[in-house]
Amino acid sequence: MSAESATLYAVHLLFAGLWAGSVLFVTAVVLPLGGDGAIDAAPLEAIAGKLTWITRASAVLLLLTGLRMGMLGGYWSTDGLFGSINGYLVVVMIVLWFVMAGLVEVGSSKLTDGTGKKKVREPAKNAKPFLYGASAAAVGLLLSAGALTGGI
């Protein structure tokens, strides 16, 4: 493996783990606190803002590193994407990447709706389906990545 490939994989996996972990943390820990009213509006808003920032930064870095890894791996052709199991896994990952990014953007927006009025229960309730969906996409991305790197 070349130094370029190793660097690409390291950056890609680091930000994939950061993004997926952040979404799962907000879904598993922060949403229940908001739903119970056990967190104030200001921290909830700050957490949602950080999640949005992590999502945007990770999405850009994953796109750039993923495109380059695809070039090096020969996936950017019809035969490369639709001619092997690994190609299909790459397609699944691209679709899940879009789904997760969109769901986190909407979920984070819902999570901050009403925080200016010191509301937390209703925004947490409204954000729940979007962040649950984003969490499912995150798990799907991690499983696809594991299958891809495992050489299925």
Describe this structure in words.
- 85% of the residues lie in helices and 0% in strands.
- It is mainly α.
- The chain has one domain.
- The radius of gyration is 17 Å and the shape is elongated.
- The mean pLDDT is 92.
What secondary-structure arrangement, pairings included, does this model have?
Layout: H1 3-36, H2 41-73, H3 78-82, H4 85-112, H5 121-149
Helix pairs in contact: 1-2, 1-5, 2-4, 4-5
* Structural class assignment: mainly alpha
Outline the low-pLDDT stretches.
Answer: none
Distance between the termini: 19 Å
| Helix content percent band | over 70%
Instruction: Specify Rg, calculated over alpha carbons.
Output: 17 Å
Content of β-strand: under 5%
- Number of E-type strands: 0
User: What is the helix/strand order?
Assistant: HHHHH
- Return the domain count: 1
Largest beta-sheet characterization: none
How confident is the prediction overall: mean pLDDT? 92
Instruction: Based on Cα principal axes, name the global outline.
Output: elongated
Count of helical regions: 5
